[in-house]
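Changelog-linked ticket: pyridoxal-5'-phosphate example.
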Amino acid sequence: MRPQRATVAEIDLSAVAHNVGVMKEFAGDARLLAVVKANGYGHGAVPVAETALAAGAHGLCVALVQEGVELRRAGIEAPILVLSEQPIEQVGDLVAHGLIATAYSTRYIDALASEAKRLDVVGHEVHLKIDTGMNRVGAAPSNAVELAGRIIARSPQLSLGGVFTHLATADSPDPTETRAQLSRFDLALAELHRAGVDPGWVHAANSAATIAHPDARRDMVRAGIALYGIAPDVSMTPLCGRLRPALTLRSRVSYVKRVAAGEGVSYGLRHRFATATTVATVPLGYADGVPRGLGLSGGQVLVAGRRRPIVGVVTMDQLMVDCGDDEIRVDDEVVLIGRQGSESIDANEWGSLLGTIGYEVVCAISARVPRVVV
Ligand SMILES: Cc1ncc(COP(=O)(O)O)c(C=O)c1O
């Protein structure tokens, strides 16, 4: 069935390819893993993955086994790292589809080994994740030698292909915590070396660290947000000037009316017009991923080449825009995220208004919005 609304998320794959090139330059000699979890941060995992690989990414990262399986089913044969341990009942699928495992517990290593044995797989690649301070997932640095030894001892089913950590504050202008994490990581790596363990690929950097912390780049970097052309944090915008946003959230005016001074708009009539104005209705709402409070927080759209405020609360399927005295017609283009004429709005602008980050904004664009590759 063809989409019935004009609301689409356009994905510019040439921007993704360009951003891969920019991040490869930052990465220097390190290989680049393109992080395409959460449906490629809302951009469409398969087309982004194919584009990133064609542009020189060495492999991919996903959060879930099902995300890796989707890529395999699309015919992608490149290395795919699943970034955390998964439910034990999914380990069979992970091994069967040749997804690189992340491990940080004996139970999980043993489950990987027994599934590899059952499936007659030799040398299934496992990366050991060390938690150096983020306190989300990962082994304590003091357990690294024991866990690496356990993976190696499970040869020939398993092989230790890498050791990595994840940085909690690489996007912050203050480098203190990143330096502390990297030095804990280095101590753990030194202990592995002392124990005679070859760690394989060593990696630590996300997008922010790849851009701003040369010491984090190591053998590989895992870049996500930058590949989509979004700065990891607003404070990094100047460093991200060469990145090109890949996503445009676009719609068209579905209805236009003139509203008198003193009238209100949308549920609760929480916005009232001081003067008579033209109100355009746009067919997308919070069920599409536009937060209900965006207008009340100062959110704007681009229409007729100008910034115009979203007024009142965003409703489930529609939002309203104050167009002043502009001549607006049904079907006029409305850009919510992206460029129109000389104006542009990026995901981090929404993030700043809403107390969140560009990552959440693009991931929240719902499945109801068709992704159109351009
Ligand atoms: C373990 C891990 N590595 C890398 C990334 C990519 O991070 P970014 O999108 O900031 O580049 C993520 C994303 O959350 C992650 O969880």
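Closing comment: Example verified and attached. The pocket of pyridoxal-5'-phosphate is lined by residues 35, 83, 166, 206-208, 222-226, 232 (CB under 6 Å). Residues 12 and 374 are 5 Å apart (CA to CA).
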